[in-house]
Write a structure and sequence with these properties.
By secondary structure, this protein is of the alpha+beta class. It contains five helices and 16 strands.
Length: 255
């Protein structure tokens, strides 16, 4: 099977992003996306910063996949509150229709839906997951976007607690497990260390030195990770250097 994880930057690099996804749709079974917006209205582009309906746009280029949207916050866009139309922000999973999906759900690892406070640092965070059976083997895929606090990607009490909640949940799941997404953590943090216990960090294992594209101009080039349980057989892991977001996609072939 093949899985791709990517923080899509809310679809800001729209045409190259959709082309990449469309080009990989034929051989990719699972897509895990972070920073996804959707709206029931006809709105599309907002201030050229994001696509308000990017979830629907993704579904159009993935007709052979079932899309699952897990919104964490309603009524806020990339630049604050949106009052003139409905909009939601969160995570998205797309799973090939030929796979057996046993369960799709989410848990909150920070706050609860619509618990955003005065600024973006208080945005609630959910963990989206799917349990899938393929070739009589059970898998749990967890899609994660860790909290952002505007002060780098170091350890904080909130991040440590967030990692403990994710780890506790994963420990309850049976079968082969994959945790992927934009963790917003540096590689040497205790918060990442908690998540790594019992899992293999494919970013470290493969000597990946950056998960950010040239569109990201800040110093810390780490944010995204792919962690797998030891039972997962990794056939190929790749982080291609392409400009479809300010993040780079992570591509995993496995069984």
């Amino acid at each position: 099977m093949k899985l791709i994880s990517l923080n899509i930057w809310a679809g800001r690099v729209f045409k190259p992003l959709l082309k990449y996804i469309s080009d990989h749709a034929h051989d990719t079974d699972i897509f895990c996306f972070q920073e996804v917006f959707d709206t029931p209205t006809s709105r599309k582009v907002v201030s050229k910063l994001y696509r308000a309906n990017i979830f629907s746009e993704l579904q159009k280029v993935l007709p052979n996949h079932t899309g699952y949207f897990a919104p964490a916050q309603d009524g806020f866009g990339m630049k604050g509150q949106v009052i003139n139309f409905q909009i939601s922000w969160g995570l998205a999973l797309f799973v090939r229709k030929s796979l057996t999906v046993n369960e799709v759900g989410e848990i909150y690892i920070r706050g609860h839906r619509n618990s955003r406070g005065k600024d973006a640092t208080t945005m609630p965070r959910n963990l989206q997951y799917a349990t899938i059976t393929a070739n009589k083997i059970d898998y749990t895929v967890a899609n994660f976007h860790g909290l952002w606090n505007g002060r780098g990607k170091t350890d904080t009490d909130e991040r440590l607690e967030q990692s403990r909640k994710v780890k506790k949940f994963l420990d309850t799941m049976s079968g082969k497990r994959i945790l992927c997404g934009d963790f917003n953590l540096s590689p040497d943090t205790k918060s990442l260390g908690i998540l790594e216990k019992g899992l293999v960090n494919l970013i470290k294992e493969n000597g990946i030195f950056s998960t950010r594209s040239s569109l990201y101009t800040k110093q810390n080039k780490f944010a995204d990770y792919m962690l797998v349980s030891p039972e997962v057989v990794v056939e190929k892991f790749n982080v291609p250097n392409i400009e479809i977001s300010d993040h780079l996609p992570m591509e995993l072939s496995f069984h």
